From TrEMBL:
Residues 539-560 are annotated as: Disordered. Its EC number is 4.2.1.12. This is Phosphogluconate dehydratase. Residues 357-548 form the Dihydroxy-acid/6-phosphogluconate dehydratase C-terminal domain. Pfam families: ILV_EDD_C, ILVD_EDD_N. InterPro entries: 6-phosphgluc_deHydtase (IPR004786), Dihydro-acid_dehy_C (IPR042096), DiOHA_6PGluconate_deHydtase_CS (IPR020558), ILV_EDD_C (IPR056740), ILV_EDD_N (IPR000581), IlvD/EDD_N (IPR037237). SUPFAM superfamilies: IlvD/EDD N-terminal domain-like, LeuD/IlvD-like. Residues 13-322 form the Dihydroxy-acid/6-phosphogluconate dehydratase N-terminal domain. Belongs to the IlvD/Edd family. Keywords: 4Fe-4S, Carbohydrate metabolism, Gluconate utilization, Iron, Iron-sulfur, Lyase, Metal-binding.
Length: 560
């Protein structure tokens, strides 16, 4: 009753909680406890907090290779719409967003920026402890693809990899999201990679609440999201993406996020920044370490400090942490033993890496660039994550194998028909065609063939996920095949040249304009899993470079 009375009098801030909790998925399960932590912390700091709404949270790993993957990308915009509905009651002075994984964080942020006049702060759950090593996990997957081990061995390895609450520990989209929210100033310093259900994580969640109260317009440090996300913050996010070798999915999501803030970026911007920002972090799939090793080696505080020292980041930015701009993010949290149990203090972070195989310096980088290549040619525009591809495997010039379904390539492999050099051209996988599913199911097979000495690559208008790995993959190609893009005119046997060193992906000695575009395959799965409900989204989705968005006015932005 006391809280109701205070709310009626509007004498203290009311914090809205938007949560991606579910207890099916490890990354979201910890959020079950967060609302109570937030509510208690708000009450102790002269505020109230309410769960404003929930958003869906699906896992690309669970749906990998399944029909449900075709809903994955569009779930981002469903999350954005759900967040907008949660905040539409217009009775909150700030919002705390509980999300970590692939489409969830971008969806939450896209909506938050539509409510840019409010303060918004993100509270992550953190990664699970390390399981079996990433090379061992990859080895078992390739053995399964080769038929050398059974499904029981595969399942045992997967269970040992993903074994506890928290995000997956490889550096895919989920953990790239956390890096971005921190380096863009939307999370508290050092909050990204603390394990769930630990005293420090709980204290950080309470501290996040405390900070949300302080930055409302009822305090002295009013910090609306429109003051946090500007051009400098977007550039800082791009720099972080390149310096850490982050997920290729963010080449889509950051474009959509920027547009939600009224800022236009394209893949030329990504490529330009990649050329000048060195790769100084080596986390799987760019190395064998996981995010827990990254965090222990110095983590975000060291990374940001090193990039600031090299003048590669804007420090004069507004962040939810306040204080001295991005300089605050060179600090790391520890529990405050001399105050309340759920408070933290921030101490200077490490200025030297504790493991130079995981975190290095700008002066001695793992790569001189960020490892993301813009791919352009007579097959359209796309991107390639080359940071995990050995330089000897970059250039592939081989005949095309044209397929419209990833399962067709799997069947060819099982039949022994892929024991040669080739470029798999997998088309009709764009946003308009089928929602642009991830195609990471192909990675073990292609990796196995590459290990046998064959020159292989993939060119697709689909996605290959945040774990894009050791096989050269020109992905997100547009114009997509469904819209008559060049991939729809390629035929099996055409010679394809994939050349990331020169940013080129082309068919050789063929004038594609003289060919008729292939017709899209007849879809037979639309009645399953509610995919027919997403037909309106497929009809209006923008291209990948613009963010593959279905949110209307964002897609009609033009430069002024």
């Amino acid at each position: 009753m006391l809280e109701k009375t205070e709310l009626l009098g509007a004498r203290w801030p009311n914090i809205g909680i938007v949560t991606a909790y579910n207890d099916m998925l490890s990354a979201h399960q910890p959020f079950e406890r967060f609302p109570e932590i937030v509510k208690h912390a708000a009450r102790r700091n002269g505020a109230t907090a309410q769960v404003a709404g929930g958003v869906p949270a699906m896992c690309d790993g669970v749906t990998q290779g399944q029909d449900g993957m075709e809903l994955s990308l569009f779930s981002r915009d469903v999350i954005a719409r759900s967040t907008a509905i949660a905040l539409s009651h217009d009775c909150f002075d700030a919002a705390i967003h509980l999300g970590v994984c692939d489409k969830i964080v971008p969806g939450l942020l896209i909506a938050a920026l539509r409510y840019g006049y409010l303060p918004h702060i993100f509270a992550p759950a953190g990664p699970m402890p390390s399981g079996i090593t990433n090379p061992e996990k990859a080895r078992v997957r390739q053995q399964f693809a080769a038929g050398e081990v059974g499904r029981d061995v595969l399942l045992a390895a997967e269970a040992a990899s993903y074994h506890a609450p928290g995000t997956c520990t490889f550096y895919g989209t989920a953990n790239t999201n956390q890096m971005l929210m921190e380096i863009m100033g939307l999370q508290l310093p050092g909050s990204s990679f603390i394990h769930p259900n630990t005293p420090l994580r709980d204290a950080m969640t309470a501290q996040t609440t405390r900070r949300a109260v302080q930055i409302t317009n009822m305090g002295d440090e009013f910090t609306p999201a429109c003051n946090v996300i500007d051009e400098k913050a977007i550039v800082n996010g791009l720099v972080g993406l390149m310096a850490t070798g982050g997920s290729t999915n963010l080449t889509i999501h950051l474009s959509a996020i920027a547009r939600s803030a009224g800022i236009l970026i394209n893949w030329d911007d990504y490529a330009d920044i990649s050329h000048i920002v060195p790769l100084i972090s080596r986390i799987y799939p760019n190395g064998i370490a996981d995010v827990n090793h990254f965090h222990a080696a110095g983590g975000m505080a060291y990374l940001i400090g090193e990039l600031i020292g090299a003048e590669l980041l804007h420090t004069n930015v507004t962040t939810v942490a306040g204080g001295d701009g991005l300089i605050e993010y060179t600090r790391e949290p520890i529990r405050n033993a001399h105050a309340e149990a759920d408070t933290v203090i921030f101490r200077p972070g490490p200025t030297d890496s504790l493991d130079h195989e995981v975190l290095t310096t700008v002066a001695k980088p793992f790569r001189p660039d960020g490892g993301l290549a813009l791919m352009a040619g007579n097959l359209g525009r796309g991107v390639m994550k080359v940071s995990a591809v050995k330089r000897d495997n970059w250039l592939v010039e081989a005949p095309a194998i044209v397929i419209d379904d990833q399962n067709d390539l799997m069947a060819m492999h099982k039949a022994g028909e892929l024991e040669h050099d080739f470029v798999a051209v997998l088309r009709f996988q764009g946003p308009r065609a089928n929602g642009m599913p991830e195609l990471h199911k192909l990675t073990p097979v292609l990796g196995l063939l590459q290990d046998k000495g064959f020159r292989v690559a993939i060119v697709t208008d689909g996605r290959m996920s945040g774990a894009s790995g050791k096989v050269p993959a020109a992905i997100h190609m547009h114009p997509e095949a469904l819209l008559g893009g060049p991939l729809s005119r390629v035929e099996t046997g055409d010679m394809i040249r994939v050349d990331p060193a020169n940013g080129s992906v082309s068919v050789l000695d063929v004038d594609l304009s003289q060919r008729k575009a292939a017709e899209a395959p007849v879809r037979t799965n639309l009645s399953g899993l509610g995919m027919n409900m997403f037909a309106p989204q497929r009809e209006v989705a923008s291209d990948a470079e613009s963010g593959a968005s279905t949110l209307g006015d964002m897609d009609r932005m033009t430069e002024t």
